[in-house]
Amino acid sequence: MAPQLGIVLVFFFWPALQAIEQAFYVEDAFGLSREFAGLANFEAVLSDATYYQALGTTLVFSLAVALGAMSIALLLAVMADRVIRGARVYRTLLVWPYAVAPAVAGVLWLFLFDPTLGLISSLLGNVGIDWDHKLNGAQALALVIMASVWKQMSYNFVFFLAALQALPKSLLEAAAIDRAGPWRRFWTIIFPLLSPTSFFLLVMNSVYAFFETFGTIDTVTSGGPGGATTTLVYKVYQDGFVGQDMGSSAAQSVLLMALVGGLTWFQFRYVERKVQY
Amino acid sequence: MATLRLNGIHKRYPNGITALHGIDLSVADGELIVVVGPSGCGKSTLLRTVAGLESISDGELMINEQRVNALEPAERDIAMVFQNYALYPHMSVFDNMAYALKNRGTPKDEIRRRVTDTARLLDLAELLDRRPRHLSGGQRQRVAMGRAIVREPQVFLFDEPLSNLDAKLRVQMRLEIRRLQKRLGITSVYVTHDQVEAMTLADRLVVMNGGHVEQCGTPMMLYAQPATRFVASFLGSPAMNFLPVTAHRDGVVLPNGVEVALPDMLSEGRAATLGIRPEHLVEATSMADAAAVLDVTVEMLEPLGADTLAYTRLPGLEEWLVVRLDGAHAAREGQRLSLAFAVAHCHVFDSQGARVPLAEPETQACQ
Ligand SMILES: Nc1ncnc2c1ncn2[C@@H]1O[C@H](COP(=O)(O)OP(=O)(O)OP(=O)(O)O)[C@@H](O)[C@H]1O
Ligand SMILES: [Mg+2]
Predict the structure, then answer these.
(1) Which UniProt keywords are present, listed alphabetically (chain B) (predicted)?
(2) For residue B193, how far is its CA from the centre of ligand 1 (angstroms)?
């Protein structure tokens, strides 16, 4: 127990405490001195229009990533479940996108969608879609969503597949005898029985979309064009490490933590009780 | 109103195991057939092929003389009670029972009426709003029954429906199933490995072994005239005693030289097995025309209340000879007993395990 606790303390709580402390100070341009600023950092953040733009982007992005990654994974898991019946080999093969580092996956997507060289952008050009995520904000957002969905899908897939394989076979057989066709069986038996897994994944995917998509966004669009793909966590990075405004960055991360904390609390409070049977 | 007929049903699983080697069986309308046999003999496979959950490799399955081999489970109009009940855990008892009716598009008020009627029949009326995990084992079992009954199917299939219940509840539910099945008159196939359940429920009993039907007929017929040594050993508790014998001019002779007078039926010198049920061994003093008298020593006693089982040994034989004595019998361990049995209670099996008829009418076929 002690080593894990140590790791959590060093790598999570310590930086978190640092961030909270930092949020109440302003630093000079060289980081040599700082003074207590009360809530000034928070006021500055909350009166900044780009912060609200980032918040909006984050909500659209997170919702799309969580829903996209979960529904595609579920579809694939259902199809795989029919074929494999517990063969572990395939299961591990299907996890590989998750094992690819976010930056590498991001580069892959960059290549495919490069406006001049990319395979997919040239295919899209053939059907009349002018792809240029370097100029078009909506396309840029779509691209980071796709890349993030791709990245998270395999994680969801593994959980959905495991849950599907753990469903008692006799329940589905009973439903088949009870005259439920495959479609109805899915919606009235399988889907409700997967709900604990879906709930767990919803929480995990929200956290992923809020925090862990940083690497993907950085490689694919660097938050652009015009801040169209700047999510809250990316803005924390930009303002803090690029803009060197540590106080604002810290205040934003505190707000972000509060937001995700609140969201997770909401999910447990209102969604979880619906998924128990 | 339905009849069920199996013509030479074979089932080969994709992994190469052949679980059914040509099953012939016909079930009359309203009849309750019990399929019994040891673990792995193919009972569940048989039910599952009838239900349509497993494909039929070879042979014909007829419901009401219509070939249904190619029909989906949903189209066969059968209901099945699973060993683990397979209740939908996220639905209330009501919804569990209503599910099949909803899938069929039955009007709402008819669903309500039928579910409430069935619930009343099974004493479930109070439980309709509960989820399965808030029910006891016996209640779950009744819900599983209710779910099958409410559909009014052509054929009922039961796969060891009572094996997860304790002994007392099992007896109670056994009677309940019998009562409901007769009252509703639904053609049923009931699988169990419990021979008491099999004997008490069945209109006709099918004994399976290794993917074959060993014998089928009324419980009493199978008990009185087992066609094979396997059937003889499977039905009856405690099991029939088997003694190695050699055919002889006037019957058979035990290894220790005791002669048993039987009608002439095997050529002299052939090895055979003599079977006698524990309840057919009685004290020699109370029998006039015994086939033979055996002098045994009581080695162990098992008082069961109404009866006492005596495990005895015959000098010169390795096998135990189990005797069912009256509970009031004053037998002691180490005591000597003289046991006699009648010719009518002797079962002789040849070296392949087939019954050697002692001039009695032969058993009926399964078709
Ligand atoms: N899905 C399957 N794939 C391959 N072989 C199977 C399958 N199901 C059953 N078998 C095999 O078929 C044979 C019959 O199995 P079955 O389940 O019908 O036995 P059973 O009589 O119901 O046994 P029990 O009393 O233990 O339930 C067994 O040898 C079993 O291993
Ligand atoms: Mg079985």
Answers:
(1) ATP-binding, Cell inner membrane, Cell membrane, Membrane, Nucleotide-binding, Sugar transport, Translocase, Transport
(2) 13
Q: Which of B90, B100, B147 sits opposite A179 (nearest CB)?
A: B100
How many contiguous H segments (helices) and E segments (strands) does chain A have? Answer: 16, 2
Task: Report residue A155's pLDDT band, with 50, 70 and 90 as the boundaries.
Answer: confident
3-state helix, strand, coil in chain A (%, to 5): 75, 0, 20
Task: State the average pLDDT for chain B.
Answer: 89
d(CA A63, CA A202): 10
B46 CA closest ligand 1 atom index: 18
Q: What is the pLDDT of residues A90-137, one digit of tens each?
A: 556 666 666 666 667 777 878 888 877 778 877 887 787 777 777 777
- Residue in B80, B90, B97, B158 to test binding to A, most A beta-carbons within 10 Å: B90
What's B116's DSSP letter?
H
B208 CA closest ligand 1 atom index: 21
Cβ(B208) to ligand 1 under 6 A?
Answer: no
The DSSP 8-state label assigned to residue B355 in this structure reads B
Q: What is the ipTM of this complex?
A: 0.81
Using alpha carbons, select from A214, A208, A207, A99 the residue that is nearest to residue A158: A99
Q: Is B128 helix (H, G, I), strand (E, B) or coil?
A: coil
The verdict on residue A97 lying in a domain is yes
d(CA B98, CA B108): 9
DSSP state of A194: T
Domain B239-356 has CATH 1.10.3720.10: no
For residue B163, list chain A residues with Cβ-Cβ distance below 8 A: none
d(CA B358, CA B367): 24
Question: What does the pLDDT look like over A23-64, one tens digit per residue?
Answer: 787 776 666 677 777 777 777 777 788 888 888 888 889 999
Q: Residue B77 has which token pair?
A: 């109009």
Tell me the whole-structure pTM to 2 decimals.
Answer: 0.80
Q: List every span in chain B annotated with CATH 3.40.50.300.
A: 4-229
For the domain that residue A75 is a member of, what is the CATH number?
Answer: 1.10.3720.10
